[in-house]
Specification:
Length: 58
């Protein structure tokens, strides 16, 4: 009886821990992805990298 109760609470605790870790890693992944996206936009939208087409050509 005690073993069954321990097993149920252990499994419930593990499930909650796994859910919390999943949420934490998802939040970190989204933050890092957003940061890399911003760096990518800055890098490839840099005004010093724009190619001039010459005078009079837009």
């Amino acid at each position: 009886m005690n073993d069954e109760h321990f097993d149920r609470t252990y499994l419930a605790g593990r499930a909650e821990l796994n859910a919390q870790l999943d949420r934490a890693f998802t939040t970190v992944r989204r933050s890092v992805n957003s940061s890399f996206g911003a760096v990518h936009r800055i890098r490839f939208a840099a005004p010093w990298n724009k190619q001039s087409r010459g005078p009079g050509l837009a």
